[in-house]
Amino acid sequence: MKRLTLVILAICALIMLAAAVDLPNWADPSSPASTHLSPDFLEQGYGETATPNIVTVVLADYRSYDTMFEAVVVFAAALIVLVVLRRTPRQRSKMVQHRPVREGRDTVLRGAAQLIIPVMQIFALYVVGHGHYSPGGGFQGGVIFGASFILLALCYNLQFTIDRFKEQAVLFCVAGGVLLYAGVGAICLAMGWNFLGYAGLAGILGVSEVMARSHGILLVEVGVGITVFSVMMSLYYDLASGGDLDEGL
Amino acid sequence: MMIDQAPALIIIVPLFVSLVLTLAGSLGPRVAYGLLLCGMAGSLLFSLLALGQVVTDNQAIHYRMGDWPPPMGIELVIDHLSGLVLVLVSACALLTAIYSLRTAAEDNPDRLNHYYALFALLVTGLLGMTASGDVFNLYVLLEISALSSYGLLARGRGPAYYATFKYLIVGTIGACFYLLGIGYLYIMTGSLNMLDLAEIISRPELQDSVSIKIGFSLMILGVWIKMALFPLHAWLPNAYSKAGITTACLIAPLMTKVSVYIMLRIMFTVFSVDYIFDSIAWSQVVIYLASAAAVIGMITALAQRDLRMMLTYIVVAEIGYMTGGAWVANAAGYTGAVYHILADGLMTLCLFMAVGAVIYRTGQTSLAAMQGIFKRMPITAVVLVIGAASIIGIPPTCGFFSKFYLIQGAAQAGAWVFVAALLIASLVAAVMFFKMLEIAFFGDLKALEQEPGGGHGHGSHDGHDGHGALPAVARQEAPLSMLIPMVITAASLIILGLYTKEVVNYFIGWSIPAGF
Question: Within 13 Å and on the Cβ side, how many CA atoms surround A247?
């Protein structure tokens, strides 16, 4: 069986090599990927959205519909882990789990956490907000923000974090972020534009259509950020406690 | 204005339902059920509106997401083919949603909201894939439908986790193949929009490109894994037969049919008839695979003792029918394949619903559960017979007409292997269902004694005392919430069969690709 796998893998590798024969060179400026649509994005992107970071423009405006469903994928992940793992109190204590018991106060650990966490969170907000100008955006910022809470849970304990950020609130954020994203799209639709046509926000925000697109991008990035950070927490809550939400690692 | 926005609303309505169901965690089960019904009904309504518009204007609707023109932005394309599949998916989802009142609540006493949220998300993914006019967007929605189906299937009983985990691995490999294929196409063309891709690929300088051929192969291979074509089908029977009753009714008819639709889209929209049947000369091999799928699937189904295992192997066999129809490369075969997407979606749904009702009432999943079914659950039994007749291909039902077109197409193409496979599969299906009905009518008494509790199980599952009613079996029809969608599905099998000519003339005839 193992040999068969190797043979199949070798054949696949040969096919891949064969396919590489007439691919354009790396970073070839005359390759189709660089000549077909990229010039349009680069030339018109800023003029149409007032956002200098073209990656963000493509991600959150031209292909915003894809990005919305990327956020939904993250949302679905949280939902599935919840459905599969989360146990109701009735079913508890069937499984014996070995979790390290931590006693005493870890002064150094907690002190360091107290120092780092606020900085992380502010940096995360910066990454979300600065996605218009530099690498960043909702996914990256959301991950950093979520990591700060996980750090809190690791340095103190799970219960400490759950007391401050209840499961219900986390779930509210999980769905709320995507709802913000899809809601922006629905508002545009209600204003007579197509779904996710941010120009429809111009009337509400009182700005030009180009600026409305810029603001629309920010709004959906915030939505993505909320979903990503809360999904990370939700996943951590369920995975660390085996679905019991009592005490974690 | 509503009509203009219908293509987006088809997909957005179930998405919002899913989000609201997650947000409002503490709603009662009735509210959750109502919300789900509203969402599915909304999708069906907008699908019908969009399809109506396509038929009146006789041209495809192109909906620009975010108002960006197509090669730069993403567009939804609803034409005769995708409109038809959208209506099928949303109608099946609505029927399953109605059906789920009792079963979903019993399978998920604690997490009904989240279960329904995943349900709505799966439907969002299926509808989004069908409506999409962009290959990458299709991948994203493929992931959504696949992910939510993993979640739903894992809620099943017993070894469902293990079966789902296998499905997860295989499904992810399939999705990776598809993504890799898109990668090759993008490197060679610089575009992701289906129509734009089709235009670029048809240029003479790309006709002989190895990369594009391998890109095509990878995409098709990925879709084949997703739709469980014969040698790649091993994940399907286990994953689907261990699922909860509602989950099986939702996933088994729809996931594989939408995958077949994607295969048709890639073959005939992104690539062209000339490219597939001249530049890539696979069709002989694929027809053999499809024939093998049909025959082996049906024979394996015949060998099963478990009702749902049997149905899942029928699904494997039906996939063979549709694949063969698409690859015989003529108009009749294509018509048969598309018509069979509709017919098979409905008849698989019909059978899974009827069998689900039997399992719900008797509590057992083996063939023995069928004993005395005509006395205990007469309506369910009639529904089952209609579904079985359609699978076998008995005239007034739609199963006959799809097979008629498929055989016609295969005969025109001279693919006699496929003709033989279709006929043999029908015969085997007939044997299988007559065996089932024999048990149902005459109730094999020996099996009754051997199965512990089999004879007592009729009523006792529901809390009644089965002992008193043992000799004259009590009538135990399925609840109304299950009967109504079942009867509608069974009726639609016959109605679709009676209106075959109209369906083919008004819808499928317009979607036949140029070159046939």
Answer: 9
Beta strand pairing status for B61-64 and B75-78?
Answer: antiparallel
Domain ranges of chain A: 47-87+107-240
Contact B353, B380 (CB under 8 A): no
CA separation for the pair B186, A63 (Å, rounded): 15
Cα-to-chain-centroid distance, residue B207:
34
User: Considering only residues 54 to 73 of chain A, which have any Cβ-Cβ distance to chain B shorter than 8 Å?
Assistant: 61-66, 69-70, 72-73
Given this model, what pLDDT does residue B458 score?
41
Q: Do B210 and A198 touch (CB under 8 A)?
A: no
B137 touches chain A (CB under 8 A): yes
**Beta bridge pairs of residue B64:** B75
Question: Which amino acid is located at A247 in the chain?
Answer: E
* Predicted pLDDT of residue B461: 42
- Residue A108, token pair as written in the block: 């150094």
Helices and strands per DSSP (H, E), number in chain B: 23, 2
Other CB atoms within 10 Å distance of the CB of residue B496: 22
Beta-carbon separation of A33 and B150 below 8 A: no
Amino acid at A175: A
- 3-state secondary structure labels for all residues of B364-407: CCEHHHHCCHHHHCHHHHHHHHHHHHHHHCCCCCHHHHHHHHHH
Considering only CB atoms, which chain B residues are within 8 Å of A179?
16, 19-20, 23
User: Using an 8 Å Cβ cutoff, are B419 and B411 in contact?
Assistant: yes
**Residues in chain B where the model's pLDDT stays below 50:** 449, 451-472
Distances (CA, A) of B42 to A205, B7, B11, B36, B100: 30, 12, 10, 10, 18
Per the CB < 8 Å rule, is B72 touching A37? yes
Looking at B132-234, list the stretches that DSSP marks H as alpha helix, in order from N- to C-terminal side: 135-154, 160-189, 194-201, 210-227
Contact A204, A215 (CB under 8 A): no
Residue A15: the pLDDT is 84
What is the ipTM metric for this complex? 0.90
Task: Indicate the helix (H) or strand (E) that contains B307.
Answer: helix B307-327
DSSP notation for A40-95: HHHHHHHHHH--S-HHHHIIIIITHHHHHHHHHHHHHHHHHHHHHH---GGGTTSS
> Any residues with CB less than 8 A from the CB of B292 and at least 6 apart, and which?
B230, B320, B421
Q: Is A143 exposed, middle or buried (0-12, 13-18, 19+ CB in 10 A)?
A: middle
At residue B257, the pLDDT reads 92
Please answer whether residues B10 and B90 qualify as being in contact, where contact means their C-beta atoms are separated by less than 8 angstroms. yes
> In chain B, what residues touch A34 (CB-CB under 8 Å)?
190
Contacts of B12 in chain A (CB under 8 A): 182, 185-186, 189, 195
A39 Cβ contact list (under 8 Å, min separation 6): none
Burial class (CB in 10 A: 0-12, 13-18, 19+), B382: middle
Helix (H) or strand (E) holding B75: strand B75-78
What angle in degrees, to the nearest 10, is found between the helix axes of A2-19 and B210-227? 140
Judge whether A145 is closer than 8 Å to chain B, CB to CB.
Answer: no
Rounded-to-integer distance, Cα B352 and Cα B62, Å: 35
- Which residues in chain A show pLDDT less than 70? 88-105, 246-249
Quote the pLDDT of residue A103: 60
Q: Are B301 and B285 in contact (CB under 8 A)?
A: no
